[in-house]
Amino acid sequence: MSRYIATRALRGANLIVKEFDAQLQKALAELGPDKEVQFTNTAYYLPTILGYTGMSVETIGGLKPVLDHCRGLLHSPPENRTWLPYLGETLDAGVATLLAEEGIMAIRFANGQEPQRMPGLELTGTSAPSDTGYMNGPIDDIQLRSWGIQLVDGRMPGFAAIIGKAKTNEAAVEIVRQLQRRNILIFLSGNVNGRSIIHQLMEEGVEMGYDTYIVPFGLDTISTVYPMGFATRSALTFGGMKGGQTREILLYNKYRVFAFALALGEVDDLKYATAAGAITYGFPVIADTVIPEIRPTGITQYEHVISMPWDDIEGQTDAEKAARFVQQAIEVRGVKIKITEVPVPVPYGSAFEGERVRKADMRVEFGGKYSRCFEYLRMVGLDDVEDHKIEVIGPGFEDVEEGGAIDLGILVEVAGRKMQEDFEPVLERQIHYFINGASGIQHIGQRDIAWIRISKGATDKGFDLKHFGEILYARFHGDFGAIVDKVQVKLITEPELHAEWLEKARTAFDYRNQRLAEMTDEAVGEFYSCTLCQSFAPDHICVVSPERLGLCGAYNWLDCKASFQINPTGPNQPIPKGNAIDAWTGVFDNVNEFVQQGSHGAVDTVTMYSIMEYPMTSCGCFECIMMILPMCNGFMIVSREDPSMTPAGMTFSTLAGMAGGGLQTPGVLGIGKYFIISNKFIRADGGLKRIVWMSSFLKETMAEELKEAAIRAGDPDLIDKIADERVATTEDEVLAFLEESGHPALTMEPLM
Amino acid sequence: MPVTVEIPKERWTGSIREVTLGATAEQGGTRAKTVTVGGETTLPFLHFEGEMPHTPIVGIEVQDSYPADWSPVLLAAWGDVLNDPAAWAKKAEEIGADVIMLKVRGADADGNATSPEQAAAVIQSVLQATGLPIIVRGPGQAELDNKLLVAVAEAAPGERLALGLCEDKNYRTIVAAALAHDHLVVASSPIDVNLAKQLNILISDMRLPLERVLMDPTTGALGYGIEYSYSVMERLRVAALTGDGMTQQPMVCFVGEESWRQKESRTAEGVPAEWGDIEKRGITWEIATATALLESGADIVVLRHPETVDVVHETISKLMAH
Question: What number is the ipTM of this complex?
Answer without folding.
Answer: 0.82
